[in-house]
Every structure is written in structure tokens, then in C-alpha cells.
Write a structure and sequence with these properties.
This protein is mostly beta strands. It has no helices and 11 strands.
């Protein structure tokens, strides 16, 4: 499984940005796709996830109501729509994938930088 993230950039506080994660390789309906982020000098944190089959979503409390994770099975792409961005959302965002039988994300894409200016 290969993951390719894109869509990062610079945006003002209160603005919006959409990230994409193109998925290639063998992925089944049991997979879970997720977004993580890592701010400068901090650890990597879970942002949101979605099941590949049923579209069940989960969000970190810090982004609930502002971020939406979506998937397009036909395009093999997962999206992260980010609204009402805050300076504290500044981070490198990465997409990841795991089989539902494990809690470990074995597949990672390269990160994309999101910078929110105040």
C-alpha cells in the first residue's frame, strides 16, 4: 500500500484548506484510513480516521466540528477538509492506513506542511 499526501500550504487563521491522500496498492474494505499531525517540537497526534468500507469517522476533540474526513472509493482517495483553521493547527499532516485487525498503522505517506498564520 502506498500513500501520497498533498494539499498543504499557508492559510490565515479562520481559513480553510483541503488535504488529499491518494491510495495505491492492495487495500481492502476492512482498512482504516487516518490523518495524523506533528507540530514543531511535539509528538505525532491522531487527527481523524475513516473506515474504507462504511465511512465511519472518528475525530480528535481538538478538531471536532472543524475538520471533516472523507473518502472516495472510486478515486482511491481520502480527504481532510479543514475549516476554521487556527494557528495551533500548524503541523506536518500525514495520512496512514491499517487493517482493522490491528491498531498499528503500518502504512504511511509523506507529510504535507500546513501553516496557519494569525
Amino acid at each position: 500500500v502506498q500513500l501520497q499526501a498533498s494539499g498543504g500550504g499557508l492559510v490565515q487563521a479562520g481559513g480553510s484548506l483541503s488535504l488529499s491522500c491518494a491510495v495505491s496498492g492492495h487495500i481492502t474494505s476492512t482498512y482504516v484510513m487516518a490523518w495524523f499531525r506533528q507540530a514543531p517540537g511535539k509528538g505525532r497526534n491522531f487527527v481523524a480516521s475513516i473506515t474504507w468500507s462504511g465511512g465511519r469517522t472518528y475525530y480528535a476533540d481538538s478538531v471536532k466540528g472543524r475538520f471533516t474526513v472523507l473518502r472516495d472509493n472510486a478515486k482511491n482517495t481520502v480527504y481532510l477538509q479543514m475549516n476554521s483553521l487556527r494557528p495551533e493547527d500548524t503541523a506536518v499532516y500525514s495520512c496512514a492506513a491499517r487493517a482493522s485487525s490491528t491498531m498499528v498503522y503500518h502504512y504511511w505517506g509523506q507529510g504535507t506542511q500546513v501553516t496557519v498564520s494569525s
